[in-house]
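User: I've been going back and forth on whether these two constructs are worth ordering. Before I decide, could you fold them both?

Assistant: Sure. I'll take them in the order you sent them. The first construct and its structure tokens:
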Amino acid sequence: MQAKETLFADLVQGRAQQFQVPLYQRTYSWTDKHLKQLWSDILEQADLLDSEEEKASTHFLGSVVLAPSPQNEATFPRWLVVDGQQRLTTLSLALAAIRDHVADAEPDEAERIDEEYLINKRKSGHDRLRMLPTQADRPQFAAHVCGPLAEQAAGSGVATAYAFFRKKLVEADDPAAPQDVFRIEQAITSRLTLVAVTAERGDNVHRIFESLNNTGLKLSQADLLRNYLFMRLNTRGEYVYETYWLPLQDSLSNDELEQLMWLQLVLDGDDRVRRQDLYAAQQKRFEGSKTGEAEIEAYIRELHRHSALFRRLLHPGEESDSEVRAALHRLDAWQAAVTYPALMLLLDRRERGELDSSETARAMAYIESFLVRRMICRVPTNNLNRIFQAVPGQLPLDVPVTEGLHRLLSSENRFWPDDTELRDKIRKAPFYQYGRPQQRKLVLQRLEESYGHPEPVDFAAAQLTVEHVMPQSPGDAWLRALGEEVGDDETAEELHARFQHTLGNLTLTAVNSELSNHPFERKQDLLHGSHLEMNRRIAATERWGAREILARADELADRAIALWPAPLRGVGRAERSRDWQLAHQVLAALPHGTWTAYGDLAAFLGSGAQAVGNHLANTPGVAHAYRVLTSEGKVSDGFRWAAPQDAGSGDVRALLTADGVRFTASGSADPAQRLTADDLAALLAGTDDDRADGEDTAQDATAETPGEETRAERFFRQITSDDSPETVEAVRALFAHWEGLGGWIGHGAGHVTTSAYLMLGETGGPGRGIWPMTFYPGTGRGGVAEVVFQYLAAREPFTDRALRAEFLARLNSLDGVDIPQGKLELRPNIRLSLLEKDRNRELLTETLTWFRDRWEGRGTS
């Protein structure tokens, strides 16, 4: 048996060979969580290739245990992958995605990647594959490596992983943080290290596998560094421990202490150090100089001093100055831990006397503005770590600290939106679909506070939620009113989709559910009585449509520009093309068997359908551009391939059929497979269910305040006003069955649109359990049950895509339900009225029982 450190390139390159996954191995099972972590590690290593630290430590990915295959040949080595198949399969799929990403622009490079890592060029059949997964995964893996991609299995983790990398590669072209795709390839093949354990015939490879996976509790970076420091304090150790270390350790958790140690390195100008490399980096600094006990003691004393500053970031109430305290509270509520290097620098400089509290608060206002303006303008957050980690080392030395920070954040490629861009995005961008729920609420709260109401609302105590004035699901009255404003090439539904999520249509409210989705006239009286100034101004308008939403957007934009300072002009600002970049990302993420319309994509971007069509027609290399159709599901009369080589791709309808898009008898794409603007936003939003995780979802046997209806009563009152008595009783019976299974019903805090969650697990909010479906009252068209596949993808045991696919198949057995496979990544709806049929109720209760059994049996198989 031999064990040696190797690289993926060294392992798989060279002569023809094959790595076979034995049939007894589990199928490919990496989830979104694993893929995101790997991608983060890959990008980190790609960044190191551009720095002076190219020879810095590579990233250790894990072990691979190989044994000779019984089918081994002298001229064609075959290896059994006893351990490590998940890693090898994932890296192969990542390289296949890179190959396909560059195929149009650089076909020679695509061929090189294919032949170096993925195929055995002169072999055929299964021997052509350099990596041969277990039988269950083999067809999908072969299709993604060798083609064609005519069919995708519903439960295929292989297809999901490949799609993940295709989407991430499009994101990597982001002008705010561009990544060279070939640097990414190089990081995968030559910066991710593996330990390859190669067994001889007769070795007990299963015993090797067991020993490699028998790991105990690892020491943290803080533990390692603490042990190292006190081993070096031979004579002063007890004094230093009692005087500095013990108070430090008592004031911070181990995780917080590790974070402080990392911040100390960053404040000293090390803008590349990773937290997981903290111990090695600090050890290198101490051993690279003549470090004695005095230097070690000075380091721990400085840690102790900084701990008091760090606690103010974690607990803003400990800050004495009211202005700085308010700024820290807002950044804490924004969950802006990424800004800690800059905030620590400001507090440190203030303590040293280099700026006063007023200047500190002004500098923090620049940081807040940087975050808020980027969020409103939908700038991706993937480079924020790099930006703020670099602040201590890049802060200009020739100007005061506050002005220097303003200049640094304003510079090229920081992408701090100016007033023009901020105003444009407030008017057009779907604000409700970006950022975290709490961040959206904070923006509206700050805008409300800007009115200077003489009796301001206690936002900490008020039960306020973000609500749509023009509802998300408008009734006929709303659509008729919108119909008066539509242009020649737009329907009332498309106009609604374009404006519903913009900031001008959103407000905060704590009023009762009578607001619901009623016509504007019925909302006005309730909004008139609101204590919020922004609601009184909405109520003062005569009607509510696109014109009024735009007028309010302009008013809010004036306030936003006054609230959040602008970047400096003329500091080398970069040209922006993020909106189209966002379009490319979401099209690359389209699941198999789905399509979208020009209007849907335009509403998602905050653009116009014609502009979307022109861009796709004139931009070569956009993945899935042909899957953007008219609202009727037809190929646009004006459709053309953006590049001559694309025209040879074949008939558009044939391509759509190969991608799993079905067509009706009239020749239109199946409307059930269409992704709306909300669906497109969900594709890029990750797996968290914002509507639940962002609000107080609780079991509520009692009213929130005496005399008020409970959330459950509010929910049933709302569905009773819109659905038939038979439907309401069917929902009550279903809820009773769920409670009989040991579940409980949680209700959202929303007043305009309330909700009910079928919860399993502990009470006290969705973060402490799991739920398969969310029920929403109707909006003039009947209530719906939302199936939260996207949320389940991050919760065990439903991280297994095959389980989610089985859940979908069971739901599709209901009469009238036909959820396409492409929506397995999203949150499709089922009409509550379908539960009036006895057989549908029986099938759904059986499905929910199955769901409960799978969840309770997690980890036992």
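The second construct, handled the same way:
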Amino acid sequence: MQQFIDVVLPIPLEKLFTYAISQEEAEFLRPGMRVAVPFGKSKIYTALVHHLHASPPLAYDPKEIHQILGEQPLVNSIQLQHWHWIAKYYMCTLGEVFRSAVPSAFLLESETLILKNDRVAVDEMNLKDDEFLIYEALQHQSSLKVHEVSAIVERKNVLPILNRLIEKNVILLKEELYEQYKPKLVRFVKLADAHTSEKDLENLLQSLTRAPKQSQVILSLFQLNASQEKPIKVTELERASGGSKAVIKSLVDKGVLEEYFIRTDRVTYDDGQGGHEVKTLNPYQEEALTAIKNSFESEKVTLLRGVTSSGKTEVYVKLIEQCISRGKQALYLLPEIALTTQLIGRLQEYFGAKVSVYHSKYSIQERVEVWNNVLENKQKAQVVIGARSALFLPFLHLGLIIIDEEHEGSFKQFDPAPRYHARDAAIVLGNLHKANVLLGSATPSIESFYNVAKGKYGYAEITRRYGDVVMPDIELVDIKEQTRKKRMKGHFSERLMEEITTTLEEGLQVILFQNRRGYAPIVECTTCGHSPQCPNCDVSLTYHQYRKQLRCHYCGYHMALQESCQACGSPTLDTKGFGTEQVEQEIGQLFPDAKVGRMDLDTTRGKHGYEKIITAFEQQELDILVGTQMLTKGLDFRNVNLVGIMNADSLLNFPDYRAHERAFQLLTQVAGRAGRTKKRGKVIIQSYNPYHQILKQVSTHSYDEMFKEQLYEREQYKYPPINKIIKITLKHKEYNKLNEAAEWFSKSLRNVFGGSVLGPEYPPVARIRNQYLKNIIVKINQDQSLPKTKNSIRRIEKSFKSISFYRSVRVIYNVDHI
């Protein structure tokens, strides 16, 4: 009886595809295993087995699979359930979730190889110049790849040339699969068995008297063997004997030494031995821990609200300890990679080598190793710390999920699909695994706190800082008044200057926060008012002084800073606004003796970029740290006494219904970096409008007041958490076609949903990478069915796509848009 499998392909197509398999393959294959399958005319993809069955597809003749990849399932059944939920809820395809969830090394790619056809005699006179170049290259190489052909003929589109060569029977095409992941093998050496007895060894050393370097290698090997039990690496032997690789190789060739390879993980943490006693919790932490446990017993997601520096991490550690003692795995999600650097050290003190880390700054190879360790439930992957992508790891026995700083916008994926929110997806994952879920934050999101108010979530709080340290003193400075009285030094008010001076004199550290990287967001000609714009996006270019460059932060376009205005030729160029680079430069001039560091996307590009800056600041090698919102998230610096917020207005005056909530969270979090030990910290907030309601609430630490106010506004204007929101973005390179398409789409939506459709409207940046954008927002009432609403939108999209004029317009869904 013929057997079939349905597979998930890593491409954005709605349905599963059916392939034919033999009886032997059917007995071997299981859901979650990888298979290479042909798709389309010549492409081969890595697909995931979804399920096996015996019913052939009706619409097409199923092809046979190409080969089976791997002997064990890569993905388990709970993961597949979770992926289905993500695809359905966030209105994307299962293939997009598959591509996003799995490290790309597991997705074998096919590469088209161009081979010479040896069976045919080629008449070189019949070949055109570009064809002859390829033919000649194949005389010297067995095969060429498409990009190599492109380089030879110096053209991007080489398919027409290749087609002509195929017609003339000059070349053949072959699809080759290549695996991207290669295990790391370390070379070790040992003495060959023939020389292990004392007598043989004596003879060996005698025979090597004329080769002093070789005999030195043998003696060093003995010393190393005597001093350590473990196998000896070739590099170790080189160091100890002072011999070169060539000397060791000649001993291997002679059969005196034997070399062998051991597979090792690329990421190992040797420093954390673990076993440290968890700090004793103070009464407030104990109380919170008891409340969390009680809430877990009634199987509720629980929110822990603890003021900044209240010791939430110690509570998490207690919960992780109890979780792994039951033989379960724990997942600790963080919004920023910057935070993992500090946390790894802290968790290793307690759990040693049981800690694994998973995020995008790790190489593909390293991510594959963590994936395999979690899949095999290894000891070294009992506690996984990671950014949002760690959610997709193949957990078998997940017992606890901690989502720290749960209010953070970085938990939401924007591009590409799936546009999921890690906090919400983690709650669903916890449900599937019957695991406990804990959300932690000093400034919870309005949605989470609303769920607590409704009794949907459990709640625990820590109201005092650890060690009874007083909350920082927050002072608002009116820079409009200061500028009028000419008391500003650059972008620094008199008050901020005084406090920085005092703090540095006391040997303490300062953090300065400016939520904009670069030197200045705008370069403007003071003669004609022209400012350089990005050719691909509707934004002005940001000036980066350290590279003397103008850069676009949306598409990456950059150009050298011009000496004169491109419009009128006048050399009168001036900058407007300021970013972290300018703050760093100014503070360096005002305090020449202070050591200043900067932490933003430009200085943390490398794999260990975060680590270097955070470690330098922790070890007090820097006096002042200037940074963007990376600084605000849960970092623990013991010696910081002053935090300066350069300009709070840029956070408040933002076209977004969440702007005030975000400003409150960001300012409270950054203020929380000050005075985390005995001395009371100081926070200076500079603003042109110090009487703004949100700034007053930040200075009096009144979260509840902010929550009530924001909730009232959201109720009035029907925004989350009262209503659900789906943002539909239409994208096309032609301005007029996009306008027509957006009108058609929004009218169809209004016919179904009436007044709860907003738009179509251009976003603040209406063109990115030469594509125009238009947004439509659909608000969904609490009593309205979310799945039915999504189905209606999907039906409208199908009608939209059936109009050939609109087919090229891209439709993007963002559910629970943040």
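Notes on the second construct follow. The two ends are 51 Å apart (CA to CA). The longest strand covers residues 43-53.
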